[in-house]
């Protein structure tokens, strides 16, 4: 029995989206992305086609929040887990993680805009120091057009409490906020982001070189994660789509002010 044109399109789209995600997208994500690209698919249909094609994705386990403790003595937890932000460039958060690059660990600092969970600044180096975190913050500040009135939230790592990093915050006129000591869920969006990066994208045994790691991770940050990957926080939209929708709705309102 001949295969219908519709089914051929569905199979091709499922394979295309799975490949673009480098094997990370599940049936729900593929159904949402395919439907958004003009090939309507239900989660059930996507699951059936993935099974038929032998495609098995990585899925991220859930987590629970832990009890909070004391605040940093100098920089309080101003954010206080208020992770739902009404507009871009209001609250950014940041963190550092480690990546194996063949012979030694490299360190990745990322700055995320909480509105759409979009990575807006990043830096990689072989040292987890304040130069690394400052470079990531400066990239975010410049790439977003030097916005005013930003709050930046992080943990109490020395690369964030250092004089150098605090001077960077002051130069950019960004208000600091810090998690309570020993409470990683005070910065839960960054914990989730790095978990997604490592589970969905980073090879199990790391990379062969620093250059390979940097190139591949940037591909995730500006490509798959920001442009394609559906995010539950955004109602199934990618971070780029969430921000685009905001600005499309914001402009007509702004024109009356």
Automatic annotation (TrEMBL):
It comes from the Bacteria. Residues 84-247 form the Integrase catalytic domain. PROSITE patterns: INTEGRASE (PS50994). It holds the Pfam family rve. InterPro entries: HTH-like_dom (IPR025948), Integrase_cat-core (IPR001584), RNaseH-like_sf (IPR012337), RNaseH_sf (IPR036397), Transpos_IS3 (IPR048020), Transposase_IS3/IS150/IS904 (IPR050900). This is Integrase. It comes from Marinospirillum insulare. The lineage of its organism: Bacteria, Pseudomonadati, Pseudomonadota, Gammaproteobacteria, Oceanospirillales.
């Amino acid at each position: 029995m001949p295969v219908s044109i519709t089914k051929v399109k569905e199979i091709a789209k499922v394979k295309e989206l799975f490949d673009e995600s480098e094997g990370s997208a599940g049936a729900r994500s593929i159904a949402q992305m395919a439907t958004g690209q003009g090939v309507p698919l239900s989660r059930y249909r996507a699951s059936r086609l993935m099974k038929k094609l032998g495609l098995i994705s990585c899925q991220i386990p859930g987590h629970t929040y832990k009890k909070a403790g004391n605040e940093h003595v100098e920089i309080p937890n101003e954010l206080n887990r208020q992770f739902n932000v009404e507009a871009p460039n209001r609250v950014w958060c940041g963190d550092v993680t480690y990546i194996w690059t063949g012979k030694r660990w490299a360190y990745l600092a990322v700055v995320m805009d909480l509105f759409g969970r979009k990575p807006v600044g990043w830096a990689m180096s072989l040292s987890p120091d304040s130069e690394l975190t400052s470079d990531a913050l400066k990239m975010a500040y410049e790439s977003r057009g030097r916005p005013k009135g930003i709050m930046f939230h992080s943990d109490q790592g020395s690369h964030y409490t250092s004089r150098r990093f605090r001077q960077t915050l002051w130069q950019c006129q960004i208000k600091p906020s810090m998690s309570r000591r020993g409470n990683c869920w005070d910065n839960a969006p960054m914990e989730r982001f790095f978990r997604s990066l490592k589970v969905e994208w980073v090879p199990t045994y790391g990379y062969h070189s620093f250059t390979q790691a940097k190139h591949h991770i940037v591909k995730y940050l500006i490509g798959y994660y920001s442009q394609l990957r559906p995010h539950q926080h955004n109602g199934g939209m990618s971070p780029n789509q969430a921000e685009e929708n905001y600005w499309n709705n914001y402009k007509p309102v702004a024109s009356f002010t």
